[in-house]
Amino acid sequence: MRKTVLAAVMLSVLAVSARADDNRIAIDLPPDIKARFLEQMRTHMNALNDVIHLMAAGKVREAGSVASSEMATGKGKGIGRFMPPEFREMGFDYHRSAGDFARLTAEISEPMDAAGWEKAVGGVAQITARCSACHATFRVK
What we know:
By secondary structure, the chain is mainly alpha-helical. It has a single domain (26-140), classed as Up-down Bundle (Four Helix Bundle (Hemerythrin (Met), subunit A)), CATH 1.20.120.10. Helices cover 72% and strands 4% of the residues. The protein has 5 helices and 2 strands. A two-stranded parallel ribbon has the order 1-2. Helix 4 (85-105) packs antiparallel against helix 5. The longest helix has 26 residues, at 31-56. The radius of gyration is 19 Å and the shape is elongated. The relative contact order is 0.15.
């Protein structure tokens, strides 16, 4: 029992310490907006996963269609109005990069040759760079 309590205390201290060292900008959202926002982030991750799987199957145009319908600008639910301007701009960059990827997939022939793969992977890299930059800058309280 003593070991369990000690382990729980140590984990709590580590968690608090990790949070104290987190220098990202904390965004405080009302609970209902936070839930919608996190659901939207999960939707984006699922769509990105679908894009990657479709590309792996050689279905680059279908991957572009998913990016266009699930990740590009115009799919927001109005959550941006609760975010700081810097966050909104990073979000728009993400949505624009997804739209750019969708447009470039129309130019790639299937089956993809080396040049097509380079374009497609480069387009996905532009999307994930936006994800990484935002997650490195912000966190939700």
